[in-house]
Structures are given as C-alpha cells and as structure tokens.
Design brief:
- The chain is mainly alpha-helical.
- It has one domain.
- Helix content is 78%, strand content 0%.
- The chain contains 10 helices and no strands.
Length: 252
Amino acid sequence: MTSAMSPGPSATDRFLDRRGAGWLRAGGIFGAVGAAVAFAVPALLWGLARWGATPAIPFGTAWTQIAGILAAAGAVLILVSFVCYRWSFSLFRRVAPRYWLPSALCLVGSSGLLLALVATVLATGAAASVAGCVQGSWTNAYSCLQRASPLGAYAGLLGLWLGWIGGIGLVIGLGMRSGDRGSPLIGIATILYAILVVLLVIPLLGLGIAVPRASNFLLLAPAFATVAPILVAAARIPSGPGRTPPPSLGKA
C-alpha cells in the first residue's frame, strides 16, 4: 500500500534521465565510428598489406604512417565517446547518486585516451624507424617504439592503462543503466564491453611482461569494440520532458 502511494519520478528526474540517455547514445555513435577507424580499418589494411594484396600500400613505412593517422583519428572519436559517456553518467548521478563511480572512472579513462593520443602522434613521427624495426612482425611494435620514441612508448602505455580503467567504469555504468531501465541492448553491450576489458588487459600485460601469444587476443578486440557501442546507440531513449528543462531544474 505504501509503495503504491509513493510518488513517481519528478519532471526534473525524467528530464535528466532523458538527457543522459541522449548523451549515452551519442557516446555509442562516436565509439562505434572511432573503433572502426582505430581498430577495424587498420587491421584490415595490415592484413592486406601483409599478404601483398594492396601493392599501392606496401608493408613498411607507408603502412605505418597510414595506420598511425587512422589510429589518431579513431582515438579522437573514442575520446569524444568517453566524454559523452561521462556526461551521461554525470546526469544520471543527479537522479541516482551511485553513478558517481562510473562518472569518475570515465573521467580517468578520458585522461588516459588523451595521453594515448599524444603518444600516437609521437609514434607517427617515428614511423620510419618503427617500420624498419618491426620488419613484418607487428608484435614487436612496442619494443621498437621504445627505441624510436621512449617518451611516446611510455606515455602510450600509461594512457592505455588509464583508458582501461575508464573501460571498467563504462562497464559499471552501463550495467547500472541496464538494471535501471531493463534494456536488453544495453545489457548485451555491457557484456561485450566486459569481455573487451578482459581481452585488452592480456595484451597490455604483454607490453610489460612476457605473455605467450598475447597478441592473438587482439584479433577479437575490434569486433567487440565496434559492436558494443552500436548496441548502446540503438537503445531506446525513454520518454519524458522535451529539450526545455523544467522550472525546478532552472532554480537549482
């Protein structure tokens, strides 16, 4: 009886929830495009160049420069995606304070991705040295980058670890959102992002210590990194007040 008499969400809460869902969808769109540009396209080009299917892009310095440019462009889009996710969780936090954790972790992840972007630019400048060192085996790329640009290598490693922490926050936040709204698409995206976080930690460990065949796990990462944000973007935005905030929100 008491629960039946309890008031529903206020107009302010519904407005914040809808705005947060809009930023969540924007994060999914930027994340999907960024993952495709940063991971899927370079992986395809690497496979074609490695097997000589693209004579116009020989495996070497030219491919390394193209991959670096694509990785930088994708990193920018993924960074924007993390910012959108963080704004989304920040809006949800004003309705449910427990969203403070994913909001804070996504902020850490955004800082890491920005650092990784700087490292990518430095690596692109050392493309010739890296390409000559790699010699067709991209698993040696990090050690080669350490020789060519130590600052870029260590900045990239730190940025990737911070970005991984942000990925944990994303999984937590999406899991909360899926539980709050009962969205199957966001639920599936949460699972895919969780698998991606687990997959990425193994190659990251392989950058610092020897993990047998660690690079093979990266073959699955582009698919999860692309499909998961597509599902987030496809999730339904809840109905609620329009673009104009309620008067109560303006007074706050």
